[in-house]
Request: fold
Amino acid sequence: MTTEREIYLDNSATTKPYLQTCEAITSALREQYYNPSAIYERGIVVSKKIEEYRRYIASTLGCEYKEITFTSGATESINTAIASVSSSRKKHIVTSMVEHPATLEAMKKMEENGFVVTYLKPTKEGSITTEQVLENLREDTALISLIATSPFLITIELYISSLSEFHNCTNFVHIFF
Reply:
């Protein structure tokens, strides 16, 4: 009897979670389902737990805990990040032509609201390079929004070390993983 071994190649869309993750989620749903905004004891306990996770994630990422926002998924995360610059005096955004559909839709809305969006074209090797991004930054760039992994791109040459270069030009960089 032969057994087939599955090789799953669509992890940029959805990924099979670790067993420990499933167990933690199941436990939270069964035992810690209380409203974290409530003023009763169990709600307060859940609220404190959420803040504990927020601080852990922030320390892992090297940022302030107040910078961590929990969302329900990719589309909400993308919309939240992009909308966060909607009141900026700077009205330029850099993104790419091969972004997540939610990003491209949000960019259309930003254009309708007076933003100028530069759409970077991947190189013939399928990359968005740091140089492309830097060449398209302007004084009025409010946001750089790029997908880090994509089924459409072969490689992306944007490295985390490049983020400091981008931060010199804009206050907000959104990298979607």
Remarks:
- The longest strand covers residues 141-147.
